[in-house]
Amino acid sequence: MTLAKHLKKQRIKHIISSYQLNGSEVEACENELDQLLERYPSAWIELALADEIAHHWAAIPMPRGLAFFNHVHESLQQWERTGIFSPLSPDDFQHITGLNPSSIFEPFDPPPPSMVRPH
Predict the structure, then answer these.
(1) What string of DSSP letters covers the chain?
(2) Which of 5, 43, 67, 90 qualifies as a FRET site for 109, CA 20 to 30 Å off?
(3) Residue 37 lies in domain
(4) What does the alpha-carbon distance between residue 24 and residue 108 come to, in Å, rounded to a whole number?
(5) Total domain count for the chain?
(6) What are the phi and psi torsion angles at 25 (to 5°)?
(7) Contact 66, 32 (CB under 8 A)
(8) How many CB atoms lie within 10 A of CB 90?
(9) What angle do CA 45, 7, 73 make, to 5 degrees?
């Protein structure tokens, strides 16, 4: 794994650990995260995590574990079909995650080859 990929994964893990999003399903969520990272750019995953945290902010209890990751995956699938839409501003993202939003709100990485559809 390159240093850049490692740093991107660490940013995602920071968000997950900050909100204990794995819940009691740590291993299953790690596997789900690995699958998401194979399919989607890390910036998309970061934004989807923050978006879902904001969306479920008032839910008691907030979904965690695979239930939360399923919401994230559904958002990513929707963005894959229709384009990325998030109501979060860079400031919102930073307040939710504690991370610098510049790499998220710059033009997104090109999609991985598995997402590119032949013309």
Answers:
(1) --HHHHHHHHHHHHHHHHTTTTTT-HHHHHHHHHHHHHHS-HHHHHHHHHHHHHHTTT-SSPP-HHHHHHHHHHHHHHHHHH-------HHHHHHHH-S--HHHHSSPPPPPGGGPPP-
(2) 67
(3) 3-115
(4) 32
(5) 1
(6) -110, 50
(7) yes
(8) 13
(9) 15
What is the identity of the amino acid at 38? Answer: E
What is the per-residue pLDDT for 1?
A: 72
Record the tokens describing residue 54, joined without a space.
């904001």
Which pTM value belongs to this model? Answer: 0.85
Q: Is the peptide bond before 61 cis (omega within 30 degrees of 0)?
A: yes
As given in the structure block, the two tokens for residue 33 are: 């995260």
Q: Which two tokens stand for residue 119?
A: 């013309």
Per-residue pLDDT of the chain (119 residues; tens, 9 = 90+): 788 888 999 999 999 999 999 999 999 999 999 999 999 999 999 999 999 999 998 888 889 999 999 999 999 999 999 999 899 999 999 999 999 999 888 765 555 555 544 54
